[in-house]
Structure formats: C-alpha cells, structure tokens
C-alpha cells in the first residue's frame, strides 16, 4: 500500500471510531434513569429478595390506567427515586390483568390502580397504598416501609 493510501485508511478508521464513540456518549446522555423492574415475574422477585435480604417493591398496574402511566413516566424516572429504589429494593412490576397479575391482584386484594406494595422476602405485606405518588411522596412511602420492616424484625 502506498503511503497516501495508508494515511487515508487511517484517517477513515479514526473518523469511524470517533463517530461511534460520540454516538454512544449521546445515547447514554439521552436515556432516562428509571427504576429497574422485574416484569411479570413474582417468583424471581421473591428469590432475589431472599438472596439479597431486601424488601420487594411491587407495582401492580393496568395498561389502561392513567395514574399508572403518570407514575411510570414521571415518578419512576426521577433520578433520586430511581437510584434509591434500584439500590435498596427488588422492584417488580405486574400487569394486574395478565398472567400472574390476576392471581397476585386477588392475593393482595387489589381494588384500584396503581397499587404499590412493599413486602418482605416471603411476600408478606410491610406497607400498602393505592394511587399516584410524586417523587417526594414515593420516597417518604419507601422510608416508612424500611422503618416499619426494621421495627418488626
């Protein structure tokens, strides 16, 4: 290969790598931080909670539910909430009208959506509430669940 061809090849390679790196940087910056949920799998959540000795945060929702969508798009994507919940709980999200959701809804006597429940690793309710919560309210609810769980153990 001639020197000029090597230079052009090297220049193209550098531009390609730089463009790819820039793309990854932009993609990472534009992704919202969110609570990471186990979807539709209660048994996995129970197993992970036992293994990690953490409480389970259970979000029981319905696809058609407006307050559920607001919770998912506004509160669960709050950076402080996402970081706290991802570090301190096993988070599971269950559609009440599909699969295991119908059984869990009956077991937890769900009558409205969203229903937010903290349970221990055995699936026993620690704290339970219904309805939309903003970030501040959800953080207070989580702190109350932690305190109640610690008091009972």
Helix and strand arrangement:
Blueprint: H1 3-30, E1 38-39, H2 42-52, E2 55-61, H3 66-75, H4 79-88, E3 89-95, H5 100-107, E4 115-119, E5 125-130, H6 135-152
Parallel strand pairs: 1-3, 2-3
Antiparallel strand pairs: 2-4, 4-5
Helix pairs in contact: 4-6
Average the pLDDT over all residues and give the rounded result: 89
Side by side, the strands of the main sheet go 1-3-2-4-5
Task: Output the helix-strand order.
Answer: HEHEHHEHEEH
Main β-sheet: number of strands, strand sense, barrel status?
A: 5 strands, mixed
CATH topology of the largest domain: Glutaredoxin
Question: Low-confidence parts, pLDDT < 50 over ≥5 residues?
Answer: 26-30
Tell me the name of the CATH homologous superfamily of the largest domain: Glutaredoxin
Describe the structure.
The protein has 153 residues and is an alpha/beta fold. It folds into two domains: 1-31; 38-152, Glutaredoxin. 56% of the residues lie in helices and 18% in strands. It has six helices and five strands, in the order H-E-H-E-H-H-E-H-E-E-H. It has helices at residues 3-30, 42-52, 66-75, 79-88, 100-107, 135-152, and strands spanning 38-39, 55-61, 89-95, 115-119, 125-130. Strands 1-3-2-4-5 form a five-stranded mixed β-sheet, with helices on both faces. A hairpin with a 5-residue loop joins strand 4 (115-119) and strand 5 (125-130). The protein is elongated. 27% of the residues are buried.
Quick overview:
Helix content is 56%, strand content 18%. It is of the alpha/beta class and 153 residues long.
